[in-house]
Amino acid sequence: MSEKKFPEGFLWGAATASYQVEGGIENCDWAKAAREGKVPACGRACDHYNRFEEDFDIAKSIGHNCHRISIEWARIEPEEGKFDEREIEHYRQVISALRARHLKPFITLWHFTLPQWFADKGGFEHQDAPQTFARYCKYVAQKFGNDCRHFATMNEPGVYASNGWRRGSWPPFQRWPGMGLLKTVPEHRDFRGQETRWRNIFRYFRVLRQLARAHNAAYDAMKTAAFGLEVGLVHQVILFHANGNPLNKLLAVIMNWHWTHSFMRRVYRKCDSIGVNYYLHKKFGDTHMYDKTDMGWDVYPEGICDALLMLKRYKRPLWVSEAGVADAADRIRADYIVRLVRCIHAAIGKGADVRGYMYWSLLDNYEWSHGFSKRFGLVEVNYDTLERTVRPSASVYKRIAEENAC
Ligand code: BGC
């Protein structure tokens, strides 16, 4: 196959999220749920909070030139309206460490975990949640607006609402009746503490609306706080497609509307760019047997092309802010990356304005309700010794990044 060159300045890196790697975060809703035995404990995770320099050295050594992190809201605003300057200083050092290594920082302001005080008030269901969230985002923009240009207000609002209010697998564990029968995408696992009620259907849609409002309010607030920021959000595209059957095709159109467009149309006007996460697809009427990742998800990196083209209509620069596989044996990761990157290239050829790719994840980490059992990292973490070992697939990605081609 001929070499495919990427546009000059295309960025290559990996992503992490604060709660999944940092360790020591006890004042958020996930930590409380873990204390109550509803989700696995996160504890010190990868201790990235103390080892970020070592981790960024590794990222540099494997050819990366950008890196996505998230900031933990519960650290910055541990009590409502009270901001912790020491934690600001910590993240300032994190950003400086990235820049010192020429890793362009991408910052997500909220990646699933809520400060406990905010969760206690009802989280995003609270009427004032958009303003409360916007105040936090504005504060961070004021503090870091000179150090970083690329911000996303939130990660995957659709996944957050779906797992929290539809499947009931994440805090606040609200579930629709009959969810066990609906298997559009693989279920996570069984959970304790779920509340199954009909009214969760309305709550789910309300939370989605609130999240859109929160993003829009945060966008406006951040723009007044600092000059020249790129503010967007990160959306996980689940690609729904179909075989030739017209009914299946209709089903795919409806599901893509529900999952992607009904939310994006509420927020895209207040997005300078859009982060696209891609992991899952559902092809209606398909009987093909796919190889599986350790999550039990189909190995189908080719879906990234249509996922990106789906968002092309919003006419914004796109970042592939996550895509990767859980693969403890490093059996499929290299091939997945190569196929994925070729399909990103194809999407660019078809007019999608894609500017970079951040593999999920730099490190093995806390995979939410699965605890530490799933290993997405380019770098393996030994959770007993915290030793990091670069996996062989990282060198395949390194070559792509360094040559800016695949
Ligand atoms: C999330 C990550 C998660 C990954 C793999 C994305 O939905 O942003 O936090 O670890 O998928 O499940």
Write the layout of secondary structure elements.
Layout: E1 11-15, H1 18-21, H2 29-35, H3 48-61, E2 66-70, H4 73-76, H5 85-100, E3 104-108, H6 116-120, H7 129-144, E4 150-155, H8 157-165, E5 174-175, E6 195-196, H9 200-225, E7 230-242, H10 246-267, E8 274-284, H11 303-311, E9 318-322, H12 333-349, E10 354-360, E11 379-381, E12 388-390, H13 393-403
Parallel strand pairs: 1-2, 1-10, 2-3, 3-4, 4-7, 5-6, 7-8, 8-9, 9-10
Antiparallel strand pairs: 11-12
Second rung of CATH, namely the architecture: Alpha-Beta Barrel
Unreliable spans are 184-188
Could you tell me the strand content as a percent range?
Answer: 15-25%
Count the beta strands. Answer: 12
**Mean residue pLDDT:** 96
CATH class: Alpha Beta
What is the succession of H and E elements?
A: EHHHEHHEHHEHEEHEHEHEHEEEH
User: Order of strands across the biggest sheet?
Assistant: 1-2-3-4-7-8-9-10
Briefly note the structural class of the backbone: alpha/beta
Sketch the major β-sheet: 8 strands, parallel, barrel
- Treating each run of at least 4 consecutive H or I residues as one helix, how many helices? 13
Q: In angstroms, what is the radius of gyration? A: 20 Å
- Number of domain units: 1
Oligomer: single chain
Please describe what this structure looks like:
This protein has one domain: TIM Barrel (Alpha-Beta Barrel), CATH 3.20.20.80. The relative contact order is 0.15. The longest helix has 26 residues, at 200-225. The chain has helices spanning 18-21, 29-35, 48-61, 73-76, 85-100, 116-120, 129-144, 157-165, 200-225, 246-267, 303-311, 333-349, 393-403; strands at 11-15, 66-70, 104-108, 150-155, 174-175, 195-196, 230-242, 274-284, 318-322, 354-360, 379-381, 388-390. The chain contains 13 helices and 12 strands. By secondary structure, the chain is α/β, with parallel strands linked by helices. Helix content is 39%, strand content 17%. Strands 1-2-3-4-7-8-9-10 form an 8-stranded parallel beta barrel, surrounded by 6 helices. Residues 184-188 have low confidence and may be disordered. The N and C termini lie close together (10 Å). It binds beta-D-glucopyranose. The site of beta-D-glucopyranose has 11 residues, from strand 8.
